[in-house]
Amino acid sequence: MTGTVAPARTTRWVSARGISLEVRGSGDPVLLLHGIGGSAATCGALAEVLSAHGYRTYCWDAPGYGRSADPAPSADGSTEGYDHALVVAELIAELGGGPVHLLGTSWGGVIATAVAAAHPASVRSLVLADSTRGSGVHPERAQAMRARVGELRELGGPAFAAVRAPRLVSPACGDEIARAVESDMAGVRLPGYTAAAEFMARTDTGPSLATLAAPTLVLVGADDIVTGVDESRLLADAIPGAHFGLILGAGHAAVQEKPVETAAHILRFWKELDE
């Protein structure tokens, strides 16, 4: 796939829970879930390409991110048990019941995996980009994930992003994309990030991978030093019949660094499904 893609008309839709979605194109529905330091804008370039090829794309701002409402706290005022997978399943039902092509990057992929396991009828296919089983695979990883919340609270979004965002892109990443990745992370809000980090810290999707029924594509940037190529290979090996793709010249933020190349893998995968 080469050349540029004419921008699709983008509209905004808000769910009953106050979840904001950027909507593009028409055709089979695709729901894109961004990473823990992102927003709907993170997936925008990829959504442009997919919508130009006959799909209706929905890029969410996760609860507490972008233009979405903050996650509703429990009776004790915390969001420790907030279930993003349930929110996504409810969102799919509100959009018409699906099944949807569900595409998650990093944390979004962890959510997408949980949705595919718990609500298989809602998922036409599963695409996991630079994702993981979750931070609950090891106590030290869970502790490190929860510690990020204190770091964000202490530093504030812009300084937090200045420290972390450079690790998300490949050494070959252009300045414009690198600035966009950092800008997205600089805009994270504490309520949304807190709920997201807690979801990651308590989640290990490993035991459910062998039960997944949705056709699955696992993608990873060749230069990903955050979740890493080995973790993505583990996902692909554990999920029955999963396909695996390597995005050259991209790091953890592959969907932003290489949206056209990422889309090429995805469109080829979906074409095989349709055939």
UniProtKB/TrEMBL annotation:
> What GO molecular-function term can you cite, just one?
hydrolase activity
**InterPro entries assigned:** AB_hydrolase_1, AB_hydrolase_fold, AB_hydrolase_sf, Epox_hydrolase-like
**Which keywords belong to this entry?**
Hydrolase
Q: Which Pfam families match?
A: Abhydrolase_1 (PF00561)
Q: Which domain of life is it from?
A: Bacteria
Instruction: List each copy of the AB hydrolase-1 domain by range.
Output: 29-258
Q: What is this protein called?
A: Alpha/beta hydrolase
